[in-house]
């Protein structure tokens, strides 16, 4: 009987503490559950934040795509305008009518002989002081370069006109060759190079009827390069220096376009 007493006491103590242990276990489970819920809430918030960030990025990308699409459409339209302009001039040259880019721009609106491909009479004064055979050779070389340009092989045409100018810098066709060399770069939208070559027309061949055309193209290039102030100044100068001409009319049209576009 004496030995059973401690065992009984121990069992009694264990049974007495069992509810407390169970209570602690229950409290621990609740804390663990709260922590899990908290972690899940944080993860959910992070996911929501990340989702909102992705949505903003998608919206920004959509905006950029729309802007790029608009810019691309503008470039396509300008490219079409350039091609149509060149085609129109070349058709005028082929038909013998005055061509705007071939010297007709700087001339009065009244019909005048084309000058991009001078006929025998037009080049006759210069040819009179040149060897007859050399004159024919130069005309053939110039015509070959012009034919390449008409075929739309602009870079080959640029090489041909450049070669012509190197071989015949004082030719009666030099001003025309210089102009069409610049035009070849202009059509292919190589504007810095085209600007340099058109300025050569103005500076080197100041007496040529290509000067008005070249100055107008300088203004157009400033427009293409979005140098609005320089474009306006150049257009105003063309209007002032060549009143009543096709060049002045085209300059006025481009100024009106600048105004419509709010440039």
Could you characterize the architecture of this molecule?
Helix 5 (about 155-165) packs antiparallel against helix 6, helix 8 (about 210-225) packs parallel to helix 10 and helix 9 (about 230-240) packs antiparallel against helix 10 (about 245-260). This protein has helices at about 5-95, 100-105, 120-130, 130-150, 155-165, 175-185, 190-205, 210-225, 230-240, 245-260. The chain has 10 helices and no strands. The chain is rod-shaped, with a radius of gyration of 41 Å. The relative contact order is 0.07. It is mostly helical.
Mean pLDDT comes to 78
- Give the CATH class of one domain: Mainly Alpha
Sequence of secondary-structure elements: HHHHHHHHHH
Unreliable stretches: 97-134
Number of helices: 10
Shape: rod-shaped
CATH architecture of one domain: Alpha Horseshoe
Give the helix level as a range of percent. over 70%
Name the features.
periplasm, signal, Cell division coordinator CpoB, Serine Threonine Protein Phosphatase 5, Tetratricopeptide repeat, mainly alpha, rod-shaped, 263 residues, 10 helices
């Amino acid at each position: 009987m004496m030995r059973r007493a401690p065992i009984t006491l121990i069992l009694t103590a264990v049974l007495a503490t069992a509810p407390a242990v169970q209570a602690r276990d229950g409290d621990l489970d609740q804390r663990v559950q709260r922590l899990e819920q908290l972690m899940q809430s944080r993860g959910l918030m992070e996911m929501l934040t990340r989702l909102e960030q992705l949505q903003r990025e998608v919206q920004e990308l959509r905006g950029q795509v729309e802007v790029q699409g608009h810019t691309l459409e503008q470039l396509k339209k300008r490219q079409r305008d350039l091609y149509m302009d060149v085609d129109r001039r070349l058709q005028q040259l082929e038909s013998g009518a005055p061509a705007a880019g071939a010297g007709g721009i700087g001339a009065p609106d009244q019909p005048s002989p084309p000058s991009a491909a001078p006929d025998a009479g037009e080049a006759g004064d210069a040819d009179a002081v040149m060897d007859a055979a050399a004159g024919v050779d130069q005309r053939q070389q110039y015509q070959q370069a012009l034919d390449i340009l008409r075929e739309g092989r602009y870079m080959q045409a640029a090489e041909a006109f450049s070669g012509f100018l190197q071989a015949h810098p004082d030719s009666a066709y030099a001003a025309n060759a210089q102009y069409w060399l610049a035009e070849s770069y202009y059509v292919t939208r190589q504007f810095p190079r085209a600007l340099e070559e058109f300025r050569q027309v103005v500076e080197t061949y100041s007496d040529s009827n290509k000067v008005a055309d070249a100055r107008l193209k300088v203004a157009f290039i400033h427009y293409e390069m979005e140098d609005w102030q320089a474009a306006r100044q150049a257009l105003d100068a063309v209007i002032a220096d060549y009143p009543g001409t096709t060049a002045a009319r085209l300059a006025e049209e481009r100024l009106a376009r600048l105004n419509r576009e709010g440039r």
